[in-house]
Specification:
Layout lengths: L7 E7 L8 H13 L4 E7 L9 E8 L2 H9 L2 H4 L7 E4 H9 L5
Antiparallel strand pairs: 1-3, 1-4, 2-3
Length: 105
């Protein structure tokens, strides 16, 4: 697991892939998320994308950069097993600025 100096928060969107994932991978995924400690602020499931094998996942993470935020997710056993179709990183200050500015994000 990568250690980061948490200075920013990021929204990480992970649409589920069309690949099935073994139950043992899901258990390893849960253990991994627990081990992230304070780097993981929030994790949530959303309705699956069309054709996906499971729910889409969304995380808010603390990291020093978007690359560090992406590494937190791509090192996840679920990601390694191909459970995510993609990983999209958005700095939360961009989202907050868009909402405050009245723009759709």
């Amino acid at each position: 697991m990568q250690t980061v100096s948490p200075t920013e928060m990021f929204l990480v969107r992970c649409p589920a892939s069309d690949r099935p994932v073994e139950p043992s991978v899901i258990e390893a995924h849960k253990d991994y998320l627990t081990a992230l400690g304070g780097s993981l602020v929030l994790g949530a499931h959303a309705a699956p994308s069309a054709g996906a094998q499971g729910p889409d996942r969304h995380y808010i993470v603390r990291a020093g950069s978007s690359d560090e935020a992406k590494a937190l997710v791509t090192d996840d056993p679920f990601a390694v097993a191909g459970g995510y179709a993609s990983v999209n990183i958005v700095p939360l200050n961009v989202l907050i600025g868009s909402v405050i500015g009245g723009k759709a994000w």
